[in-house]
Amino acid sequence: MSKNGSKQEVNSKTARKILISQPKPESERSPYFDLERKHNVELVFHPFIVLEGIPARDFRKQKIDVQQYSGIIFTSRNAIDHFFRMSEELKLSIAQDTKYFCITEAVALYLQKFILYRKRKVFYGADGTNKSMLDVINKHKEAEKFLYVCSENQQDSEICSWLKNNKCDFQLAYMYRTISNDIKPVLQKNDYDMICFFTPSGVKSLLDNFPDFKQNGTVLTAFGSNTSKAVVDAGFNLEIQVPSPQRPSMVAALDQFLAKPVINKAATKVATKTASKTAPKAAPKVAAKAASKAPKKAVSKAPVKKAAKATK
What we know:
The chain is of the alpha/beta class and 312 residues long. It is 42% helix and 17% strand. A six-stranded mixed sheet has the order 3-8-7-4-5-6.
């Protein structure tokens, strides 16, 4: 990572080497690999955090009866993994009519790994934002009792506040916790044009590993409002925030960014500086010279003609 060296301007070049702070996709059909081939870039996958599942014996201390909740809220695939892991460890049978409310369509589709998707009721927001998911939840808040599956040390404050302010019957279920991963080897040996964050814990992990980290023009992207806030609160410049109507996923955001033409801002800056030294000074001199000559010719010729006529 460019921790030292001269500062580059953000977006001064199209990113050629991108660090994705998540594990490498298992499937070769992942859209990330299509993106890599399409734009001829190098994607490096390395998780910034390690998830540690909370044992069933510790979960029982939360005194939560999972089967009493008719609506389950998921904001990540990790939450889905640990929800069904916990259900299996506790030997729980999840009701067929349980409703699932997911942050994105991709997260919703991940449920197919655990349930018969068509026979369940699965909901997700239109554009992948908290607001769009909460708009869907709002239509069911009177009839459902919600369980928000989240990390012990990371919950989305916007979702929690909305559920509380709208007087929803809900409970937080801590089923896993996040721990900073060792990312020194992957960052010390490489210089990345862009880093993609997916959780506030990922930002924390960067600072845990590199307390004096300097951005130096590296483009930073963040998925989710809380992650975006963590990047900004850390004092970094956030270039791309996901999701949005134009960028519903990180892959879509990267595709748009990489599609931009390469602009050599360094050369443009030199050209502008050179022009400013010559053009602004030369122009006034030429204008002044022309202005000074024009009036003199008009004044000097007119009186001479009149004087000649008078003598005749």
